[in-house]
Amino acid sequence: MMIGRIIKLVSNQYTVLLEDKRQVKALAMGKVRLDKAPIAGDFVAIEELEEHWVIQEIQPRFNELSRPSIANVDQALIMMSTTAPKFAPGLVDRMIFLVSLENIKPILFVTKMDLVSKNDPVHDLIADYKDAGYNVVEFGKDRDVPDLTYLFKDKVSVLTGNSGVGKSTLLNRIDPTLQIRTQETSIALGRGKHTTTHTQLHEIYGGLIADTPGFSTLDFSQVEPLDLALSIPDFQIDKPCRFRNCIHQNEPGCAIKEAVKQNRVSSIRYQNYLEVLESIE
Q1: Domain residue limits, the chain
Q2: How many whole angstroms separate alpha carbon 231 and alpha carbon 97?
Q3: Residue 166 region, left (φ>0) first, then alpha (ψ -120 to 50), else beta?
Q4: Half-sphere exposure of 148 toward its Cβ, with a 13 Å CA cutoff?
Q5: Which CATH code is given to the segment(s) 225-280?
Q6: Contact 170, 10 (CB under 8 A)
Q7: CA of residue 106 relative to chain centroid, distance
Q8: Cβ atoms of 75 and 106 closer than 8 Å
């Protein structure tokens, strides 16, 4: 029995990347499919039977996204442009909240930096994320793409962002061998259609990146308010709230509300959190 990761699935055939870097085609045994269907990113136990590779077991997932369907993701690259379309912190924050709920690290890719002046307010918005500790990588046609080996190596990444931010263009600049094809995604909901009918993981700088159009929905209706409150990176401060089950809304002794007043937690992120919280309730 060998352990590998599913990097591509088409119909009922799976491409598995083995630990020795070989890629093999495999089918899932009936007992596996009855439990739960294997998805891209899954670690699986496979063996060769009568010259065919078969998946015998799916290893436990440490996280999972449903749209796109992928498991065991390390980081989400949230791509947003400075203009055309305009930088939308409300959308960025909802994506941050969504991936943080699954213990996926959010990273911001900001494109079209060459199209804004030095005095454009977007610089303050970008600084707000940097000050909060987020990793922000800026791109523009007037600058070289930085070496991103440190970012991708040994990581599984998913890409998301609104329409027109230049996802395909940027990825081709980062690694021309990827040839990831995506169609546009709506600004309002992050919905989009992919030019292929499967999810695939491509190798990039010693890591893997998912060939998906990003998130097709930003739905928080099934999220528990306390789970959301506990997952947001900005709210991980030293001083605890008075109550363990504080959701940082109207509770007395809330350390997060106090931190917002003292500019130690972003007021922008907090307000966007309250709006999502209200939609859940």
Answers
A1: 2-58, 64-211, 225-280
A2: 7
A3: left
A4: 25
A5: 1.10.40.50
A6: no
A7: 6
A8: yes
Q: Cβ(207)–Cβ(153) under 8 Å?
A: yes
Distance in angstroms (rounded) separating the CA atoms of residues 210 and 159: 7
Is the separation of the CB atoms in 110 and 130 below 8 Å? no
Whose structure tokens read 């709210």? 235
Fold of 64-211: Rossmann fold (3.40.50)
Under CATH, which architecture does the 2-58 domain have? Beta Barrel (2.40)
Question: What tens-digit pLDDT sequence spans the chain (281 residues)?
Answer: 899 999 998 888 999 999 999 999 999 988 887 778 899 999 999 999 988 999 999 999 999 988 778 999 999 999 999 998 899 999 999 999 999 999 999 999 999 999 999 999 999 999 999 999 999 999 999 989 989 999 999 999 998 877 667 777 788 888 888 766 655 433 333 334 444 446 789 899 999 998 665 666 688 989 999 999 999 999 999 999 999 999 999 999 999 999 999 999 999 999 999 999 999 98
Q: Which amino acid belongs to residue 61?
A: R
- Please give the single-letter amino acid code of residue 209: I
